[in-house]
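Private note to self, pasted from the team thread so I don't lose it. Backbone tokens:
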């Protein structure tokens, strides 16, 4: 039996996933959460074999959630299920240690295959993403400026572009205002952008946030 935990902030979507999983005798949903804090609070002591995780949940950024998971349940296979197209997040997610990446629109046809694959120790990505990863790691493609950022810098960039203040970002990431300012300076230096307005335009043009 493969025990699955679902973390997504949309109750109807979680219900749809549970109905799909319930059709298969070797799969069982053992828990669910609607945000990162609820997820991290629920997992300790819970026997889960696979985590299905949405990228965009309220309260905590995806990288903060992944860091928390590594401390609480190291080695738990994570399948990212996201509304964001693969080209936006998949490479960064795979580099962050997740076991698979699926877009929500393809979840119905590929979900069960992906759960079984990562539970067995494998990685699950689409054929399109496989080609993208091969090109990316072979060095045959020029990296976009945002691909030069660390995960924390990437988080700060997206939060700045969504209109969050330095204080709000500091609270979300549990860091000081001064540290946020330092990250902002690094982001502008690495991307070659001059201010928050240019940063926001870049993020929106490249569809890094919805």
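Design output:
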């Amino acid at each position: 039996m493969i025990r699955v935990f679902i973390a997504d902030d949309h109750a109807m979507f979680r219900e749809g996933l549970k109905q799909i999983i319930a059709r298969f005798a070797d799969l069982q949903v053992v828990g669910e959460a609607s945000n990162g804090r609820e997820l991290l609070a629920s997992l300790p002591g819970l026997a889960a074999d696979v985590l299905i995780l949405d990228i965009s949940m309220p309260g905590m950024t995806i990288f903060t959630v992944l860091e928390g998971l590594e401390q609480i349940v190291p080695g738990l296979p994570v399948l990212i299920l996201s509304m964001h197209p693969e080209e936006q997040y998949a490479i960064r997610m795979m580099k962050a240690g997740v076991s698979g990446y699926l877009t929500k629109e393809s979840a119905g046809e590929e979900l069960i295959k992906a759960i079984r694959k990562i539970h067995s120790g494998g990685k699950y990505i689409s054929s399109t993403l496989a080609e993208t990863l091969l090109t990316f790691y072979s060095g045959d493609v020029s990296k976009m400026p945002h691909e030069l950022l660390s995960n924390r810098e990437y988080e700060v960039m997206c939060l700045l572009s969504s209109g969050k203040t330095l204080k709000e970002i500091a609270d979300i990431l549990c860091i000081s205002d001064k540290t946020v300012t330092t990250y902002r300076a690094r982001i502008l230096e690495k991307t070659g952008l001059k201010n928050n307005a240019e940063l926001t335009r870049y993020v929106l043009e490249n569809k890094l946030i919805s």
